[in-house]
Structure prediction request, 373 residues.
Amino acid sequence: MGAPETAIFLVAGNDEAAIEAEAKALVARLAGADPEPGALEAFRERDDLASGELLQQTIAALLAPPFLLEHKTVWLHKTSGFAMEVGKKGAAKSADAQAPARLAEVVSAGLPPGIRLVVSGPGAEKTFGDAFRQAGGQVKLCQKPDPKDRNWQAAMAGLIRTRAKEKGVVLESEAVECLVDALGVDTLRLDGELEKLACHAGERKTVSASDVLMLCRGEGGEVAAFALQEAVGQRSLPAVWGELQAALEREKDPEAAVLPLLRGLHGQFRSLLQIRVFLQEHREVHSAEVLKRCAESLSGEARAEALRRGFEFVTFHPFRLQKMYPMAQRYSGTELVRAIPLLRDAYQKCVTGGASNKQVLLEDLVVRLVGKG
Prediction:
């Protein structure tokens, strides 16, 4: 956010880890790393404190001038977010429902001299965004990459590089790609993983891909999909079966996990088919390294033409390309062509209710796709 130019700050979005880090850094800039007594009043969500009461305490602190100090910073942070939208039609008349609107009114009316306000938490922009902007406040949105976005890997890689730089961690480009594979869009784990990698690197300082593969084990739904795709790429049916069962066992509702896994497999086989078609047209590309160099050397016009023809893989990170080359070689062109409609039809059955048991459908499908003969 840079140097404070206002007394009102909102840190929101859907990235809990980034919101917490950004708000802490902002409060430290406003009140100092070691605030004087009375220079900072922080109000954080607690199990024994109702949401309305938390906001009422914050409002009372805002209306009380700083005692023997030039400035006082009031920080309101809710990790669960702010569910009540200000002015929402039909909102309840309870104190909890009225408190957000009251805080917005205090901000809109102008804070007393010497008061600085920081409000942070997931979804806070929906509740306070308009009021804070109209009052001349700064609104910072911390958004984590959306796995439904085709460019989410690049967005996550950029976030990893930014956070690593802030922590003084030097990541090789392949290490960034490995972290994307390990974390998916789980930004909550990012700081802990970076600190673990930094400690492991020690005086060497630079973190390699092998460090990430050794220390960072993927967890969560998105990462389970990556582990399954890796096994599919290796064309090892025992490994595929093990990763699939592990992914489903981690879910409270295994049936609900089938669709994301199907989407991931469909995208993987599409990419492998693109690479096979490209290799068929470019017989001179005979290794992963040559494929990587070929993609990197494409001019802007050539890259645009490749994308127009459906070769989306030319935009992939070089490390990812090198991993996918041998995967594409393990399947014949016929097998890859056959896989696309099979995956599409399976997804359609799950969406339309045509699958009586989604888990069994997926298990049968991966055996048909990966099995040989």
Observations:
- The first helix runs from residue 16 to 31.
- The CA atoms of residues 75 and 265 lie 44 Å apart.
- Residues 85-92 have pLDDT under 50 and may be disordered.
- The beta strands are 8-13, 40-44, 72-77, 115-120, 138-142, 170-171, 206-207.
